[in-house]
Please model this.
Amino acid sequence: MMITKISKTFRWEMAHRLPFHDGGCRNIHGHSYAVTIELTGETNSHGMVLDYFDLGAIVEPIIKEIDHSFLCDNSDFEIKTFLLQTGLKAVFVDFPTTAENLAAWFYDRLSDALMPMKHLHKLRVVVSETERTTAEVEGELRLLPQATISMEHQSHMLE
Ligand SMILES: [Zn+2]
Model:
C-alpha cells in the first residue's frame, strides 16, 4: 500500500510571555507564528489525502481564534487579570505557552476533527516562532489492526 503525505502552512501574529524564563521571553512580546500541518494517509478516488480546502476549513477557525491575541497561561495571574479587565483579545490555556505546548494544543484539537477520516494515518504539527526554530508533535490517527482485535476480545469477554 502506498502512503502519501500532504502539508499546508498557516500563519498568524500572537503575543505571549514565559513567566518562568530568566531571559527575554519573560517579557510580553510577540511572534509571527507559522504552523505546518502534515497528514499521512491513502489517497481517495480523487487522488487526494485531504482536499487542502477542507484542511483549511478545519484549521482556519483556530487561527482566527488566536490571531492578534495574547496567548495567556492561566497561572500568569497578573497578565490574566489585566487582559480580563481591559477586554483585549486573549486565549487562556492551562500550560506554559512554549512552541512545544502550542504544537500539542494544535495536535489535540486537530486530531479530534481528523480521527473519523479512516484513510488518514498520521498527523504531524510543526510550530515555528521564528525563522530558525521549530517544535513538532507527531502521532498516529488510526487504531492499529492489533488494537482493534484486542478491543473485540474485550467485548467478547464482557458478554
Ligand atoms: Zn516568545
About this structure: Strands lie at 4-16, 29-41, 69-73, 90-93, 120-128, 135-140.
